[in-house]
Design goal:
The complex is a heterodimer of chains A (310) and B (242).
Chain A (H helix, E strand, L loop, with lengths): L2 E10 L2 E11 L4 E5 L6 H8 L7 E6 L2 E2 L4 H6 L1 E4 L11 H11 L4 H14 L15 H13 L5 E5 L7 H15 L3 E6 L2 H7 L2 E6 L2 E6 L1 H7 L5 E7 L3 H10 L3 E8 L4 E6 L5 H12 L2 E7 L4 H10 L2
Parallel strand pairs in A: 3-8, 3-9, 6-7, 7-8
Antiparallel strand pairs in A: 1-2, 1-4, 4-5, 9-10, 11-13, 11-14, 12-13
Helix pairs in contact in A: 3-4, 3-5, 4-5
Chain B lengths: L1 H16 L2 H18 L5 H4 L5 H29 L1 H6 L5 H21 L2 H10 L4 H27 L4 H22 L5 H10 L1 H9 L5 H24 L6
Helix pairs in contact in B: 1-6, 2-4, 4-6, 4-8, 4-9, 6-8, 6-12, 8-9, 8-11, 8-12, 9-10, 11-12
The chains are: A alpha/beta (310), B mainly alpha (242).
Chain lengths: 310, 242
């Protein structure tokens, strides 16, 4: 079930929370929503769930506009809200059964679905406990279980791994990845390794606008243009190498990493193969090229570049 | 319709789990029993085999109790964020409001049913006008539903239960008390309208055993307006403000 958002705009008073956001997520895709706090991630997700009414723009889930038939759209969406609000005084099983029923799961299947969720989310030990007594990690699992109990086609997870320990994070990521094979998953986070680990595509949102959209790899390449390289060049005069590199039109912002080891960090201006370029350059000047390590771009840099500008 | 019952069931379970239900039952029966059988213008003092003593005291105890029951319904959901959870499920705002209303009404029905032994007692004491007593119960139910509507509307306004309680009491007291006091000070149309808007006029005639469709309609309209306003509050402002 595809999710399609076009020109979504939402204002709170004078403040524009979301500004003409376009978004397309297809079945079998895990999309990561990345952005600083207050960038508009939650607002966009709430709008897809039909929880807030946008000022402008259109949202369709599986071809049905959210505002036209919110109930049937919501029946296809599993939503894990930020901060994971739950009924604190309910036992885990009751909560899951209640959620399944109001989501329209047929009475004959309620038990099966709840049982499957308890198993899938690792709640077997805790299923008779009151939600308020659970640790944060288990609460988060209950939150995920209630979002998925009606087997929705679209999953919207607002910061799904907050409060989990590293093992649980890995488990949840695997769960999300496996769900992403057959379903449409939109998740938000500000943890960068998380999107790299789980998402097929990343959307970076800043001050209500989408500033980047692509695979983790494409985004890394896109930022500041080209690849980052580390090279070890043995020459009699390191400063001379630096000067030559910087004056070359193929490289930019070369700098010495350490004098003794003759290591340089350089950014390529072109899309040519950096190894070949370096080799020829060294050959010309009679230097020895002893290392050439592609560094790529770390996603943190991309993120900071895009959200810190202006 | 199923979904309304599921929501009502959840709320009823939470009434009983949190002891609110038991406290309500004990205090309601205690107070009404005390004033019906023991103190003031009780049954023995009146010397009549009817339950008007009970209806008069229940008229007041319910006025205070219902806001206490309804204050939690939507305010707590809003405060804890579960309203957001509920409204992103496949339920409409109306189903949420109706479920909350139904839970309150069921609890009040249980409380009133628990007072039926008074009825069985009074039957043994003397000649009883059965119609009048059932009519009185019906009046209590209708009044309760009107105040439950108002209470749920008040609860939809805020995330603070105390505020919800006070607002419900404030709106309730206008119908319960203020209009009735104001009415005699006006003549003609205004006076008649104010009179017709006050709960006590409709309640009194019903609890005396007269069923007038206008009285029934009055209580049902109050209920309906309260619930519709609550629903509008959920869909209009919903969780939008946050």
């Amino acid at each position: 079930m595809d999710v399609h958002v076009s020109a979504l705009t939402k204002r709170y008073g004078d403040q524009v929370a979301v500004d003409r956001v376009d978004l397309d997520v297809r079945t079998g895709e895990v999309v990561g929503f990345l952005g600083p706090n207050g960038a508009g991630k939650t607002t966009t997700m709430k709008a897809i769930c039909g929880l807030i009414v946008p000022d402008h723009g259109q949202i369709t889930v599986g071809g049905t506009p959210v505002t036209k038939d919110p109930n049937s759209v919501r029946a296809n969406i599993g939503y894990l809200p930020e901060n994971n609000p739950l009924y604190e005084d309910m036992p885990v099983l009751d909560l899951l059964q209640f959620t399944a029923r109001i989501q329209g799961v047929p009475e004959s299947r309620v038990k099966d679905r709840v049982g499957a969720m308890v198993k899938e989310c690792g709640l077997e030990q805790e299923k008779h406990k009151i939600v308020g007594e659970l640790s944060k990690g288990y609460r988060q699992r209950v939150g995920l279980a209630q979002a998925m109990v009606h087997d929705p086609q679209v999953l919207i997870l607002d910061e799904p791994t907050t409060g989990l320990d590293p093992n649980q994070i890995v488990e949840i990521r695997e769960l999300i990845r496996s769900l992403g094979q057959s379903k449409t998953v939109i998740l938000s986070t500000h943890i960068l390794p998380e999107v790299e680990a789980t998402c097929d595509r990343i959307l970076i949102i800043d001050r209500g606008r989408i500033v980047a959209n692509g695979t983790p790899k494409a985004l890394r390449d896109q930022a500041r243009g080209k690849a980052l390289f580390q090279a070890r060049i043995l020459a009699s005069d390191p400063q001379q190498v630096l000067l030559t590199l910087n004056s070359s039109e193929k490289f930019s912002s070369a700098r010495i990493l350490d004098d003794d080891q003759c290591r340089y960090e350089l950014t390529l201006k072109t899309t040519e193969d950096p190894g070949t370029l370096l080799f020829h350059l060294c050959q010309q000047h009679g230097w020895v090229l002893s290392e050439a390590i592609p560094r790529g771009h770390r996603l943190e840099d991309v993120f900071r570049d895009l959200t810190m500008s202006n | 319709m199923h979904k309304i019952w599921y929501i009502a069931g959840k709320d009823l379970a939470s009434f009983f789990d949190s002891l609110i239900a038991y406290i309500l039952l004990v205090v309601f029966l205690g107070l009404s029993g005390f004033f019906t059988w023991w103190y003031g213008t009780d049954v023995f003092m009146r010397g009549q085999a009817d339950l008007s003593a009970f209806f008069n005291i229940a008229y007041w105890t319910l006025f205070f109790f219902i806001p206490a029951l309804t204050m939690r319904s939507l305010a707590e959901e809003r405060r804890s964020g579960t309203l957001e959870l509920l409204l992103t499920k496949a339920v409409s705002e109306w189903q949420v409001v109706a479920g909350k209303f139904l839970a309150t009404l069921v609890l009040i029905t249980i409380a009133l049913a628990a007072s039926l032994p008074y009825y069985f007692t009074i039957i043994r004491i003397g000649e009883v006008d059965h119609g009048a007593i059932w009519c009185g119960y019906l009046a209590l139910m209708l009044m309760s539903s009107a105040y439950a509507g108002i209470g749920i509307f008040a609860s939809s306004l805020t995330g603070n239960q105390i505020v919800a309680f006070l607002v419900a009491l404030l709106i309730g007291s206008v119908f319960h008390l203020v209009l009735q006091i104001m009415a005699p000070n006006f003549t003609g149309m205004v006076g008649a309208v104010l009179d017709q808007l006050s709960t006590s006029v409709h309640f009194d005639s019903m609890s005396r055993g007269v069923i007038d469709s206008r009285d029934v309609l009055y209580f049902l309209s109050l209920t309906f307006v309260g619930l519709v306003l609550a629903e509008m509050n959920l869909s209009e402002r919903g969780v939008r403000g946050r």
